Amino acid sequence: MTPDPSTTPDATDGASDAAVSNVVLVTVDSLRADAIAPYDSERRSPVMGRLGEDGTVFDHAFATGNWTPFSFPSILASEPVFARNGEIGVEGSETLAETLSEAGVETGGFNAANGFLTEHWGYPDGFDEFEPFVTSVGSSVYSRYLAAHPTVEAWVQLATSPIRRLGSKLRGEADDRPFLDASRMFDVEDAATGFVAGADEPFFLWIHYMDTHTPYVPAPRYIREVSEGLVGTHRMLHAHTRTSLGLTVGERTLDDLRTLYQAAVRQVDASVGRLLDSLDAAGVADNTAVLLAGDHGEEFQEHGHLAHYPKLYDELIRVPFVADVPGFDGGRVDEHVGLEAIPPTVADLLGVDPPDEWHGESLVPALRGTTDDRAGGTDDAPVVSVTVRGDEVTQQPIPRSLSDGELLVSARDAEWTYIENVDSGDSELYRRSTDPTQQDDLTEDPDETAQRAIDRLAPIAADHAELLRERGAAATAGDGEVGDDLEARLEALGYR
Q: What's phi and psi for 389, nearest 5 deg?
């Protein structure tokens, strides 16, 4: 879809062209770009599909890391991870919420129990209302075991759901929640819709979903919906049992995991729909911009593993980014963008000046762009992403600081992906237009075109690594001790 120049606001005007009083930022953990309808028309995500049809779809949006703590400093503070002290988090950063709050914007943030988006790492700063839903797991061996083994908890919920449904029926109640709220989706949804109902304009709302993070335990109705009723709950349990026990994951199990993942996407999609309905109910939908992004992707053995271990290939770094802004026609942006553009874009939409220290640039010109200037607001600078890898890619505990392993840096544009292990000196180059899954490393015998890409991207990766090393030289892995409850929740996500 291409904007009609005759109806596009004048490119010389400011963000006031958009009739925006409020911004809702929806982030979805582990959401691949190809998992939703704006990027794959066969996907069953009708709400996200409508956002893409009405808004702007960024076809080449990239995260700055392979997992939440490496990505969110860009999403909520427009800066690279490790930019300050070699540690994860945004403590001491000028966050988006702080910038907006200081400008008089009411702010609310609700995180579905991702332990890396909590007070320990500075994420509540600037939010008038903030709830991470990371509660005490209790002191009993049973409660701590369930907190660290959410798949087992889901099995317990599955076994008891008939009893709960019967009780609801006897009480005359409808029960459309066959599982307890393992992902805390209903908690964050209820908190977010409550915030919308009571907030004064202008407001900024951030909501983070965890349903598409391992383990995938969507409600059975969504499994049936995305599989034409061919995959039942027993297949979900079978797939999780094999992966939990470390058994071989064959094609059938892998297909079942993909189905469960897509069902979880559909579950989030339905929740986003109810959130949008709350904007309508509050009478603010027509002047509220909605931004949707994944914080990183998810691997299904494209490079030998499941989930999101320390790698920098597209299945983990390419993410969806969709913006539906009142007053703008929408369309598709082909140029590459990084998620560090989110804070300055939100600030621009709300008429708030961004701090000088932010790294990203506003994408409002791109949202407003005409046929001849669709890339307005983007630049030619490649998107840089990082991860830290221990002796083994699956090493536990997973690295959280620069001092926990070898630093890998990638530099991406719309065509090329360059990846370098800056400690070992090993590098890789992929041309994504002809090798979209990045299987054919071109550094072994590069042709002239590939060599030019290396010559351009390698210095960018090296400069970024040097900057991080300088700022994090004094960091040690033992800094910032984490409490027992938070550690249990992180273990529940697989981050031991």
A: -120, 135
User: Cα 348 from chain centroid?
Assistant: 21
- DSSP structural state of residue 23: E
**Would you give the DSSP letter of residue 418?**
E
CB 195 within 8 Å of CB 279:
no
Q: Which pTM was predicted? A: 0.84
* pLDDT tens profile 16-57: 456 899 999 999 999 999 999 999 999 999 999 999 999 999
Q: 160-172, pLDDT tens digit by residue?
A: 555 655 666 676 6
CA 60, CA 335: separation in Å to the nearest integer?
Answer: 6
Per CATH, the architecture of 15-382 is what?
Answer: 3-Layer(aba) Sandwich (3.40)
Rounded Cα–Cα distance for residues 104 and 98 (Å): 10
**What is the amino acid identity at position 209?**
Y
Token duo for residue 239: 């797939």
Pick the closest to residue 21 from 244, 326, 281 (CA basis).
326
> By C-alpha distance, which of 293, 367, 380, 384 is closest to 335?
380
Q: Are strands 129-131 and 106-111 parallel, antiparallel or unpaired?
A: parallel
Using DSSP's 3-state secondary structure scheme, residue 141 falls into: helix
- Best CA proximity match to 274, nearest among 194, 166, 200, 393: 194
Other C-beta atoms closer than 10 Å to the C-beta of 230 total 10
